[in-house]
Design a protein that fits this description.
The protein has 2 domains: 64 residues; 66 residues, Ribosomal Protein L25, Chain P (Beta Barrel), CATH 2.40.240. It is mainly β.
Length: 153
């Protein structure tokens, strides 16, 4: 574990960067401070993100300062390949809303089509536009007509 700075109380706060736990005695840090915690440090050409539960993650600007809270999670930009209707897309965010996923293809997924998460050995899951999806490399989605009207011509 790595230590940085000090606080009046001297009580370290645990944070996570790219899934690894670090202890910081500083309560206010910059993006440069966060980049220096891992060994080797996170390169300047990789975007650093604040992982926000149940909401879109936020990219951190170079030189930005922020107050740390126990359990905060950060990650550096790692490409994730996902598929929508068998077409591969590369993103760097770990979470995206259904609406953001629908906007990846060109043209975007039409409003009359539903977006589904393809789950192996489970029932597939319809993704709402405002639903936040946790992404992982290789995750697969497909689209289908939003309303099936049997017997319609």
């Amino acid at each position: 574990m790595t230590h940085t700075g000090s606080t009046a109380h001297g009580v370290p706060v645990s944070i996570f960067i790219d899934g690894h736990e670090y202890q910081s005695h500083a309560r206010r840090v910059t993006t440069a401070d966060l980049r220096r915690l891992p060994r080797p440090p996170i390169a300047e050409d990789r975007q650093l993100w604040l992982d926000i539960p149940d909401a879109p993650d936020r990219s951190l600007a170079d030189g930005e300062s922020l107050d740390l809270a126990p359990g905060m999670r950060f990650f550096s930009e790692h490409p994730i390949t996902l598929h929508i209707d068998r077409i591969a897309y590369t993103v760097t965010r770990k979470r995206m809303t259904g609406q953001e996923l629908r906007a990846l293809p060109t043209p975007p997924v039409a409003p009359d089509r539903d977006l589904w998460l393809d789950r192996i050995d489970e029932q597939d899951k319809k993704i709402a536009d405002d639903e936040v999806v946790r992404l992982r490399d290789g995750i697969r989605f497909f689209t289908a007509p939003g309303r099936i009207n049997p017997g319609a011509r």
